[in-house]
Specification:
- The protein folds into 2 domains: about 1-65; about 70-118.
- The radius of gyration is 22 Å and the shape is flat.
- It has helices at about 1-30, 40-60, 70-100, 105-115.
- The chain is mainly α.
């Protein structure tokens, strides 16, 4: 039993290192090629995908999510937490986007004048 847990931690650690170094190498190639080899439109989704993969690796190998006998409730709570965070983040971004959109031109000019100090 102890060897199985140690093996799980070791596999998770190696996979996490691979994900970390892959993201680092992608960014390093992107920067060293003056942003030409890997364009931004490919780099950002790639790093996001690697980050999600690393999250799943750490949940499975380190937190052992889904491996216990009562895994159903842990997964349900995890999904609820993710949905709550998603609602907060998306709602905040939506509100910030619409703050400037709903300002009148007079309010916008007043805001710009106040910020510039004129």
């Amino acid at each position: 039993m102890k060897n199985k847990i140690l093996r799980s931690y070791l596999i998770g650690f190696i996979l996490s290192l691979i994900c970390t170094f892959t993201a680092y190498i992608l960014v390093l190639i992107h920067i060293s090629s003056a942003h030409e080899t890997i364009p931004h439109i490919v780099l950002i989704p790639s790093i996001l995908l690697i980050a999600i993969l690393q999250l799943l690796i750490q949940l499975i190998f380190f937190l052992h999510l889904g491996q216990e006998s009562s895994a159903k409730w842990n997964i349900i709570l995890f999904i609820f937490t993710c949905c709550s965070i998603l609602v907060i983040v998306v709602g905040s971004i939506w509100i910030m986007y619409h703050l400037n959109y709903n300002m009148t031109s007079l309010q916008m000019n007043q805001y710009i004048n106040d910020q510039s100090g004129f």
